[in-house]
């Protein structure tokens, strides 16, 4: 989903394909700049099943939206489910919130100012806390839509990861999570420098210096997640935001996988087509190195304008990921080409980061001029400043969302009889048990 502040889980579909043995890894081909056609970051893959590779044929049959169960809506009004839930139509049974702090959190604690994002399960709104006067991004999701698509466990995983991310400078922080009978609320850091995708689309590509800075901050964030035994699995420009001074912030943790210790693996098929690692595409077990592949793909895109194996023909793109040699321009430094070759190694056991994870990344020559502690402390001046005039400057958000009226129901605390549903309610339905989170009083508004 393009130009959305916090991408709402539900735009990717999880699928499965046969386990196949990896073919030998092709060698890297260095090509001069004139051999690669100039292009923009506007990417619209086209489904085309004309391929001789059985892996890709099977994958594309699963990739066809007609083969994937979907939520049924009125074809004349595709936003009907979204609007019904946002305007007060509630589930019959409130959810079990689990043990929470004594302090209650409810929708009418906030003044909802603008819609700044929209997705399959709800909306993201700019909101001000009425008492503390702090500004947040509030992600409001519909329980009914989540349950129809069987995504409850991913929502809970996102909430769990967000709780662990609060103290890292390059990961969006969660301040509150709470629920009403029909909706879930994430109260998140508000970041208004725009998506990296937005800036890349406008500028086509970045200088190597600028790309290196962003890649270093991404690597720091990914390395932190790995230290918590979490694989991110969805690194892409749409999930990377710039803050008001130009530092990156990773958001959207709905595809994260927890509990991956050491060289542990998982096999769930998920991600975004342009950035899928070969082992994921083959439905083989994969490990933390899948994130380093994605870092390589994003770094390549920042320097060259498109993902490394991109094609408008989806079948061809998957073939490219599996079999095509990596092509690199000669106007990128030797260290730049070297790290791309290492990160985009098709054999995961030979990939940069396979042995010592983040340590291998930060020790590479490409990052030799980066002081990693200064980077973490935000002492390095970003190469680009979004030049926002203040917290309410929305120039880096899609006008399509900003012009949309704020649904009245998001600011009302849904009722069950005459009682407010807040973070202290305990009910029988355990689908979203433990979702609600209220910080300890001393941390409430750091």
From TrEMBL:
This protein's record includes keyword Membrane: no
Question: Where do the Protein kinase domain residues begin and end?
Answer: 110-367
> Record-annotated residues binding ATP?
148
Query: In the record, what terms sit under GO molecular function?
Result: ATP binding; protein serine/threonine kinase activity
> Where is this chain compositionally biased, Polar residues type?
37-52
Annotated stretches, region: Disordered = 13-52, 71-103
Domain of life of the native organism: Eukaryota
Q: Which residues form the AGC-kinase C-terminal domain?
A: 368-446
Query: Which of UniProt's keywords are assigned here?
Result: ATP-binding, Kinase, Nucleotide-binding, Phosphoprotein, Serine/threonine-protein kinase, Transferase
Q: Which family does it belong to?
A: Belongs to the protein kinase superfamily. AGC Ser/Thr protein kinase family.
Q: What is this protein called?
A: Uncharacterized protein
**Taxonomic placement:** Eukaryota, Metazoa, Spiralia, Lophotrochozoa, Mollusca
């Amino acid at each position: 989903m393009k130009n959305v502040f916090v991408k709402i889980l539900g735009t990717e579909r999880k699928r499965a394909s046969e386990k196949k043995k990896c073919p030998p890894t092709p060698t890297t081909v260095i090509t001069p700049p004139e051999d690669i056609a100039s292009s923009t970051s506007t990417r619209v893959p086209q489904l085309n099943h004309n391929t001789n590779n059985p892996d890709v044929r099977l994958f594309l049959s699963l990739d066809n939206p007609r083969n994937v169960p979907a939520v049924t809506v009125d074809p004349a009004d595709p936003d009907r489910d979204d609007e019904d839930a946002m305007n007060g139509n509630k589930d019959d049974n409130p959810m079990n919130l689990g043990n929470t702090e004594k302090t209650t959190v409810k929708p009418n604690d906030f003044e909802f100012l603008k819609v700044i994002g929209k997705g399959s399960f709800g909306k993201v709104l700019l909101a001000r806390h009425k008492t503390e006067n702090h500004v947040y991004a509030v992600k409001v999701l519909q329980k009914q839509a989540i349950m129809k698509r069987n995504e409850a466990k991913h929502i809970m995983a996102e909430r769990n990861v967000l709780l662990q991310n609060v103290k890292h400078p390059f990961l969006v922080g969660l301040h509150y999570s709470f629920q009403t009978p029909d909706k879930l609320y994430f109260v998140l850091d508000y970041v208004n420098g725009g998506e990296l995708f937005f800036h890349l689309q406008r500028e086509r590509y970045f200088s190597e210096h600028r790309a290196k800075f962003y890649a270093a901050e991404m690597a720091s964030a990914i390395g932190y997640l790995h230290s918590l035994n979490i694989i991110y699995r969805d690194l892409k420009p749409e999930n990377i935001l710039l803050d008001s001074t130009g530092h990156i912030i990773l958001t959207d943790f709905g595809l994260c996988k927890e509990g991956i210790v050491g060289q542990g693996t998982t096999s769930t098929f998920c991600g975004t087509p342009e950035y899928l690692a070969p082992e994921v595409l083959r439905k083989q077990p994969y490990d933390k190195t899948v994130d380093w592949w994605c870092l390589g793909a994003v770094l390549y895109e920042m320097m060259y304008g498109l993902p490394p194996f991109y094609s408008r023909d989806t079948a061809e793109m998957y073939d490219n990921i599996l079999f095509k040699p990596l092509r690199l321009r000669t106007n990128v430094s030797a260290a730049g080409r070297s790290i791309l070759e290492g990160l985009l190694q098709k054999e995961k056991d030979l990939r940069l980061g396979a042995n010592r994870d983040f340590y291998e990344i930060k020790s590479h020559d490409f990052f030799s001029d980066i002081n990693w502690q200064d980077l973490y402390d935000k002492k390095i001046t970003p190469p680009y400043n979004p030049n926002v005039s203040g917290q309410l400057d929305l120039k880096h958000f899609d006008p399509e969302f900003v012009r949309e009226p704020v649904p009245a129901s998001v600011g009302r605390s849904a009722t069950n009889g005459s009682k407010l549903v807040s973070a202290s309610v305990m009910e029988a339905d355990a689908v979203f048990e433990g979702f609600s989170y209220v910080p300890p009083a001393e941390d409430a508004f750091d």
